[in-house]
Specification:
Blueprint: E1 2-5, H1 10-13, H2 15-25, E2 35-38, H3 52-62, E3 73-75, E4 78-79, E5 85-86, H4 91-100, E6 105-109, H5 113-116, E7 123-127, H6 130-139, H7 169-181, E8 185-188, H8 195-200, H9 211-223, E9 238-239, H10 247-251, H11 261-264, E10 269-272, H12 280-284, H13 287-292, E11 294-299, E12 302-307, E13 311-316, H14 334-341, H15 346-350, E14 354-357, H16 363-370, H17 380-398, H18 408-414, H19 419-431, H20 436-452, H21 460-468, H22 472-476
Parallel strand pairs: 1-2, 3-6, 6-7, 8-13, 8-14, 9-10, 10-13
Antiparallel strand pairs: 4-5, 11-12
Length: 477
């Protein structure tokens, strides 16, 4: 009898057969009698395959085959039937927690070696099979013949440049403002004008992650099985789900809740292409995370909080055929255009700080491309320098608080307006029938525009440009 107790999921219960077979194929037979493996605490649900190695080692210790101080060692890994140890997800946060709990040595699969490089102050033993673990415990070292040298993988150095995008200077200006102030951005334009290219290049003009942000992002990617580097992630993440994605895949969830794409894109960009084609419940599920910057899931097993501090960048066509207002190609009526744009709810649209039109590239840009001078183009390097200068200007004034995250008191402290500027915004508030949220968002966008110019005081020109990024003008036209 081999029994396991402690509110276990199916994959954990299946460990019973994996462990029994792996031990037998490694030269160990379980004794006759009743074996009970207890997972404590018993009232907490356990899932995953990472318990296999710990179960096998515990059985060997109980059988007297090996001996060690269980308070100093931790064993993580899935066992194959032949005794080899397979990679598991979420290794990086597990190792960080082990270090905080005073664990001295951790045994992990070879497939998780990249994550082991990122944890200091903890001895990590990388093993390939069960016999290697037993040998290390007995002798304190691995057999030289089996101790393979692991070479660190090289971090992805791919680079996408804004210089590859012809024209679209207004859109490039908009993405710089969005990147500098962390403002949600919506791009509207016909198919094939470069909306997806613009979004995919935004991480290359943003500032690098801080150490704290890198650890958080790396932990999330490790949990989701996406971690492949041997160093902390430095470039801001980018996620672009298909419009058929479900609510659970975007915000997270499931029977055993796991982070969704909005958490994978934490501290980076979540790009929603063809925004009106997403299901209505998916779009509306983003409304609360856009404000709180986190996902809260409530289940019978407990409450789960996932980070969702990402920059939302969305793209959509102006109508169903995609070519409005070009009446030579678009036959949609005004009502059809409004109906298509109306697929995005008003509260969701109100949470988009900026909206910019991405138009069809003019023919003269094609001629300039044939004789272009790359040194004179607005490329990612130039844009990155401008964004970093704006961020540094902002940090000197208000520290690490992003302009888009300023609260009411901070807006009055850091976004002071003169009398003429207040009168200008009051008139705009009445004329465009703005909500209080959109009113203050426009002021915060104007603050970022002033930062890009290195100007302390917000002027009417900054406010006018910020108001130009509201969607109302496009619909009225």
């Amino acid at each position: 009898m081999f029994n396991m107790v402690g509110q276990l999921s199916t994959e954990v219960r299946e460990a019973r057969d994996r462990v029994r077979t792996a031990l037998k194929n490694s030269g160990f037979d379980l004794p006759y009698g009743r074996i009970t493996v207890n997972f404590s605490p018993a009232d907490r649900h356990k899932s995953g395959t990472g318990f296999d190695l710990a179960i096998a080692i515990s059985l060997l210790k109980a059988m007297g085959c090996i001996g060690f101080n269980e308070n100093e060692f931790m064993f993580i890994g899935e066992l194959a039937l032949d005794g080899s140890i397979l990679k598991v997800n979420g290794m990086l946060p597990i190792l960080n927690m082990a270090k905080d709990c005073g664990i001295r040595v951790c045994f992990i699969p070879k497939g998780n070696v990249n994550e082991a490089y990122l944890v200091n102050g903890l001895s990590v033993v990388v093993v390939e099979d069960l016999l290697q673990v037993i040998e290390y415990i007995r002798n304190g070292y691995l057999d030289k013949e089996n101790d393979n040298t692991i070479i660190k993988s090289i971090e992805d150095e791919s680079y996408e440049d804004f210089a590859d995008i012809l024209g679209q200077e207004e859109a490039k200006r908009a993405v710089m403002i969005a990147a500098a102030g962390w403002h949600n951005l919506l791009m509207i334009g016909p198919p094939g004008v470069g909306k997806s290219m613009i979004a995919s290049r935004m991480p290359y003009i943003m500032d690098e992650l801080t150490i704290e942000e890198s650890v958080q992002v790396s932990n999330i990617h490790s949990i989701c099985g996406l971690f492949t580097n041997s160093s902390l992630i430095k470039k801001r993440p980018y996620a672009a789900p298909h419009h058929s994605a479900s609510v659970a895949s975007i915000i997270g969830g499931g029977y055993n809740p796991k982070p969704g794409l909005i958490s994978i894109a934490n501290k980076g960009i979540l790009f929603l292409d063809e925004l009106p084609e997403f299901k209505q419940n998916v779009i509306d599920s983003l409304r609360q995370p856009l404000e709180s910057k986190r996902i809260m899931l409530h289940r019978l097993s407990g409450d789960y909080v996932f980070p969702a501090d990402c920059l939302i960048v969305a793209a959509m066509n102006p109508c169903k055929c995609g070519y409005y207002p070009d009446r030579n190609r678009c036959s949609c009526s005004i009502n059809e255009v409004k109906r298509y744009l109306g697929k995005i709810s008003g509260p969701m649209m109100d949470r988009m700080d900026m909206c910019t039109e991405v138009s069809r590239v003019l023919p003269e840009y094609l001629q300039e491309f044939d004789k272009r001078d790359d040194n004179k183009l607005l490329n990612s390097k130039i844009m990155n320098d401008m964004v970093l200068n704006a961020i540094n200007f902002r940090k000197d004034r208000q520290g690490d608080i992003k302009n888009s995250l300023l609260n009411h008191d901070e807006i009055h402290l850091y976004c002071k307006l003169g009398k003429s500027e207040k009168d200008f915004m009051k008139e705009a508030y009445i004329k465009f029938n703005m909500s209080m949220r959109s009113y203050y968002k426009s002021i915060k966008v104007a603050r970022t525009i002033a930062d890009l110019e290195g100007v302390t005081d917000i002027g009417i020109s900054h406010l006018a440009e910020a108001l130009g990024y509201r969607l109302g003008g496009f619909i009225e036209r």
